[in-house]
């Protein structure tokens, strides 16, 4: 095989499923990440993942970048000024296009890159339903010394682990305006909701690959090219430039402001986790208010542990995600229900011991946080071996 690019197009040209099967079996994908280049990743996604409803992908040129909307990134200065700017553009788009505020937010996010002098930041996170489009954006304008990545969000899992009411941990919504050509060409959608610190914890899968000089994923047959994906329609270019030149800056009255669902300057707290855990308990036919005082305290301690883990750089994102928290709640409370007994703090500790067995997690950091929350707790397992 001369290159992964050649292998990708050879595989794509096969119509017979049997031939595709044996072609894929003949390949030797990289045994560990990062993959060799973006075409190896594209072939892996095309041959293994297939088409899945409610799967959303995001491509990033640098795997070290966090998953945070532009409004909440660390280089943002005056967030209030950024929101005023965004509000002005949203109201202008609504007036010119006769669209909802939700669609105007998505359009503002999507077309902000065409502005020459006025950058606009949003709390929306852009994703796509097409993994190969994510491969394009993950490799476009990249540095050959970097490692890129493509991330996967499963909307039904985000619904399952977030709150059903607009508390700080969710609800999470996906926005996708119709009849906007550039958005449709990119198969784009936008994640709205959830505190920005929590988005990374919803990722079940990441694929990383080595960036290569002058290697950008492209597939003209699928209209995945720079010309197709980045072309801006004259109508939207004119509307946005008119706003930039003639409307902004302007005074936006409070009634016209658009605001993010969650204040990113306020950290996620144990109280935030507890509000969501109460919903999960209700789904398990277990009312938190009906628990005895000791069981309520154990639930609060669990939320405290998870909150302190959230602030630790030594603990992997998968362990401190809301997915792991719900798995622990479901096991511990479900086991207590099954045995008709009280909730056990030992069960909570045991689950964290099992969940923290991966190579990205420092068990000693987890143990220390548990000890901070319950100094008198006696550990029955040895936590010295990280991978036991």
TrEMBL record:
InterPro entries: FRG-dom. Residues 51-151 form the FRG domain. This is FRG domain-containing protein.
């Amino acid at each position: 095989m001369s290159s992964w690019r050649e292998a990708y197009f050879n595989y794509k040209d096969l119509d017979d499923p049997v031939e595709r099967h044996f072609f894929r079996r003949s390949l030797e994908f990289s045994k560990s990440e990062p993959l060799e280049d973006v075409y190896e990743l594209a072939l892996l996604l095309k041959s293994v993942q297939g088409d899945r409803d409610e799967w959303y992908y995001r491509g990033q040129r640098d795997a070290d970048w966090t998953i945070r909307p532009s409004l909440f990134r660390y280089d943002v200065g005056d967030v209030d000024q950024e929101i005023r700017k965004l509000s002005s553009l949203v109201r202008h788009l609504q007036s010119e296009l006769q669209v909802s505020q939700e669609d105007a937010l998505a359009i503002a996010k999507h077309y902000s890159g065409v502005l020459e002098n006025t950058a606009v930041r949003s709390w929306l996170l852009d994703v796509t339903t097409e993994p190969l489009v994510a491969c394009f954006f993950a490799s476009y304008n990249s540095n050959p010394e970097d490692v890129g990545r493509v991330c996967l969000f499963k909307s039904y899992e985000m619904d399952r682990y977030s709150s059903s009411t607009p508390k700080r941990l969710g609800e999470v919504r996906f926005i996708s305006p119709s009849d906007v050509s550039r958005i449709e060409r990119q198969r784009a959608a936008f994640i709205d909701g959830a505190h920005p610190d929590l988005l990374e914890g919803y990722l079940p899968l990441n694929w990383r690959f080595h960036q290569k000089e002058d290697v950008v994923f492209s597939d003209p047959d699928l209209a995945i090219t720079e010309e197709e994906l980045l072309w801006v329609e004259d109508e939207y270019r004119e509307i946005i430039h008119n706003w930039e030149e003639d409307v902004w800056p302007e005074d936006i009255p409070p009634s016209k402001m658009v605001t993010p669902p969650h204040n990113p300057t306020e950290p996620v707290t144990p109280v935030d986790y507890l509000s969501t855990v109460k919903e999960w308990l209700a789904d398990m036919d277990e009312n938190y208010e009906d628990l005895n005082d000791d069981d309520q305290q154990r639930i609060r301690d669990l939320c405290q542990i998870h909150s302190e883990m959230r602030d630790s750089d030594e603990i992997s994102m998968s362990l401190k995600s809301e997915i792991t928290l719900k798995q622990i709640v479901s096991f511990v409370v479900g086991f207590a229900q099954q045995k008709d007994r009280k909730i056990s703090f030992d069960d909570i500790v045991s689950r964290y011991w099992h969940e923290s067995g991966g190579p990205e997690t420092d068990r000693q950091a987890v143990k220390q946080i548990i000890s901070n929350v319950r100094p008198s707790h006696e550990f029955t397992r040895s936590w010295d071996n990280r991978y036991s």
